[in-house]
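Comment thread on ticket #2218

A.B. wrote:
> Attaching the input chain for the structure job we discussed in standup.
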Amino acid sequence: FSNIQTFTEPDGPGRVKVRMHFLDLPNKVQKVTFLGAKHLKEEDLRKATGVRIDMPLNPNLNRAGCQKILDKYAEQGRSFSSCELIKGGQLGDTEVIYSITEGPKVRVRDVQFIGNTFVSGARLATQIHSSHAWFHLPGGTFNRRMAEADVNELINYFKSFGYKDVKVSLETRPSTDGSEIALIFHIQEGVRQRPDDARRRDRPKPSVESLDGPMEILRVGDYLDENQSSEEHKSVRKAAPTAEKEEQPLARIGHIILTGNKRISDESILAHVSLFPGQVLRYPDLKKAENALAELGLFVVDPAAGVRPTITVLDSGSAYKDILITVKEKRTAGKPR
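C.D. wrote:
> Ran it. Output below, let me know if you need it in another format.
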């Protein structure tokens, strides 16, 4: 609908009437054109925008389509693309025309951490998803959404070790030709907090043979370490700013394939799983994403029948693993907000 207006009026004690006034969209989409698109198929762009022929022409939906197009290009590493809605922004239009300028594919040249003293940059690099290319392997594609999500990853990492007031900001430095970018994470650690609960004194030391260092007993005056104090993390060794071992290239997510969704778009599902091509493949992240999809209430979750949203790793033998997201929509499912 268009020109939606809401009016309220009293209707007795504790009651109110709500009246809505709106107009039907007058025209249908007769044609959709994507000018300048070379690296994305028209079918992918149509799916991203949600604009189809014979649907009511909705100016607001068409304008929002530009941002969805930019998000799609960002997934390819073209974060400096631009989009303009030429036609389709007025109620009297019958045609939708997007003008797209595809920016260069941007690679991550370098990842730096400034201000950290608790652990080294090499250790912090294992906590984020963005990365530069590993030796001869492809990768290091810049994804702005992923880089912004990495800020929260770092904040949560420091907070888990008692740095409750930590602040992390992201600086991006593109190269002269715009083909490469350096990601610089500025970190203000703040003061590391200590627990004041005397009941934590002399906690029994867990026995874990796989650890390569001794577990430390948390006593009054020790620094707060949620990885040590949490019940579900008792077997995780307390990190310390020690010499780092040589890191090997980690497995990373390749393509993300979705199956089973018909009414709910791929973009809506991906917005709830926080998985990106190129990020480090961590199985706890996949389990968290499965649970997030199950909790939406849009997909069938039937333990007795063994039906629920699942995420499977497709091992291709390379450093990049495709993942398959399988869902079964409920009959009454709507689109997630």
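A.B. wrote:
> Thanks. Noting for the ticket: The first strand starts at residue 2 and ends at 10.
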